[in-house]
Amino acid sequence: MADAKPTILIFSRESVEDDFGKSNEIVNFRRAGFTKRQVTKKLLDDHPSAQAIWILDCDIVNPFYKVLSKKVVDYVHNGGIAILGGWFSASVNPSDFDRWMEDAWKLPWRYGQYETTTVVFQTSAVGPYDHWCDGLPASYSQKGVFLKNVAPSDSWYASPPGSISESVSGEVPVKAETSIAFGKVGMGWLGWTGEVSSSLETAAAVRAMMGMNKGSDDDLEQLSQQLYRMTLG
After folding, report:
1. Most buried by CB count within 10 Å: which residue of 25, 29, 69, 223?
2. Residue 33: predicted pLDDT
3. Contact in structure between 176 and 163 (CB atoms under 8 Å)
């Protein structure tokens, strides 16, 4: 019988050996580094039906990687899931990100504020399958890069109107922007997590984007812990 485990591809700056632990009992993780461009491209060629691609660094926005970028965009348009997370938000140039969103994705998402504040789950948000939001917290404190121009249906977590900065003393207001986004693109989905310091709450959101919100409580907790550890830096 064919292996029924979903495959998750991970693109990062360097290809490092990960100890995925017990998580590989429920998911096939495959990782490649941008520094070996052909290896990264081949990984997607070898797994065109991967359940999701998790992009942990921002190299892909560079025109040098335009062939790989187009392959990822095509993969999403054909029904795949791509998630921008990890160190992506902390390292990408805002103008490069805005250009990539417009040129490659045809999306209005734009680089927003960098802030620490409490973000709230948005009841207007939609997901790709039943029970996609099971286990996601109602709110939590997050430090990271927010997005502007995100449709209500694409905004999973946001700083609501009247939010206050938690990075400085005093009542300093912050803008109402999206910290975690997940929107429909073609037949697939594009996700964004802007947090720059890992948290289990954001790891749970990534797990939900990957379609890994089903299974035993122990399996789901193990996977969230693994995703959390993989974004520590």
Report:
1. 223
2. 86
3. yes
- Structure confidence at residue 231 (pLDDT): 59
Rounded-to-integer distance, Cα 170 and Cα 137, Å = 26
Task: Name the stretches of the chain with pLDDT < 50.
Answer: 1-2, 233
The encoded tokens of residue 199 equal 């948290």
Report the distance separating Cα 219 and Cα 135, nearest Å.
13
Strands (E), the chain: 7-12, 28-33, 52-55, 81-84, 110-121, 139-148, 155-158, 178-185, 188-193
Distance of CA 73 to the CA centre of its chain: 15
Distance of CA 4 to the CA centre of its chain: 23
Q: Are 147 and 190 in contact (CB under 8 A)?
A: no
pTM value is 0.91
